[in-house]
Amino acid sequence: MPLTILVGTQWGDEGKGRITDWLSADADIVARFNGGDNAGHTVTVKDQTFKLHLVPSGLIHPRPVGVLGNGMVINLETLLNEIDSLRDAGINISPERLLISHAAHLITPAHRALDQAQEKARQQGKIGTTGRGIGPAYTDKTARNGIRMEELLEPGSFTTKLTHHIQETNQVLQSMYGAEPLDASQLSEDYVGFAKRVAPYIKEVSIFLTRALSEGKSVLAEGAQGTLLDVDHGTYPFVTSSSPTAPGALVGLGLGITPVARVIGAAKAFQTRVGEGPFPTEVFGSIAGHLRGTGANPWDEFGTTTGRPRRVGWLDGVLLRYAIRVNGLSELVLTKLDILSGLETLQICTAYKSPKGQYSDLPLGPADLAPFEPVYEALPGWQAEIGSVRHKQDFPAAARRYLDFIQELAGIPIRLVSVGAERSQLVDLNA
Fold first, then answer.
1. Is residue 349 a contact partner of residue 278, using CB atoms and an 8 Å limit?
2. Is 152 part of a structural domain of the chain?
3. CA distance 382 to 375
4. Which of 21, 37, 41, 53 is catalytic?
5. How many domains does one find in the chain?
6. What's residue 304's pLDDT?
7. Could you confirm whether 13 is annotated as catalytic?
């Protein structure tokens, strides 16, 4: 039963979309298991760039079937727009090719309005939410007050529940936040139309996946966000509202303790994050400008979902080892190594220090990183462009040393290295 799980090891944005694309060429099924349209996966194929937020990025290949798991929260407008845009690009996104779990939850305009009002009210204590309604949708789910996808199959009761949900949220928006109320009648009418279009895609995906695995089919579980945004294991409270770690894949897809063939962690060759929260290795000035880019290129460090400039910094080996442990990673893929070309010296954080001592592992997890300063190891950079490299021996010596250092620091092998945004710009270190 070959199940492969791909997760991010940092604060998301590690380039999982293009790694999913690479792995999907041999997969029968590609399944998203957490999050919503706050995630963004970008895949570049020749002159086409696909920016996806809900549909598994593996569906750009003709072979795999896509699954949206029960661990997700789904914005129907975003989903239908993606389906339409992919069809316009000649990609088959039929109900036979995309399955949505009956137990996934719905994000409504009320969730989005509440998310934005709450974030505004936090003022200096902002979390950095995308404002897409993710937190409120998961709050309703946990409070047993959410709307599940299966309810879209009964238009009458769905309309009643959605209208009540919007009216209830309006009271909170007006009384607590002084925000404008939403038009419950109009939104309910709109969403009945969305529901009719989405209904053919709704299935019991746990049965589908379990049968597929028992038949020997290959399933790729595609994570969104990253380990450091996990609601339990991330830099709380600056986290997402779901579990983007590898164990979350089993819960988010309705699978038991299935034998897992591989657990792959995606990491950038440096570090980035969007929004608020701790970032020990953050850099500024000219180095930050080099790592981030200007925004002129699709691969520059600006959010796929929000367009916000990402904070950037050196690779953090302490947090990388933490992600390896809590996910049980078997291998790494390293992305954006090409961005480091042209820097004279590279830094990698190998430990943290505080007045109480030096640590190679976090004593109480990553929630409070304020007491710590990074301890760096300096490595020589390289000047040559590496976008055309396809074999490890063709890398500059300094680039090979950088890869070997990360591998030794991580304690697990690096399998793939990306050297550019295009689908073919990957180096298989086992080849």
1. no
2. yes
3. 22
4. 41
5. 2
6. 67
7. yes
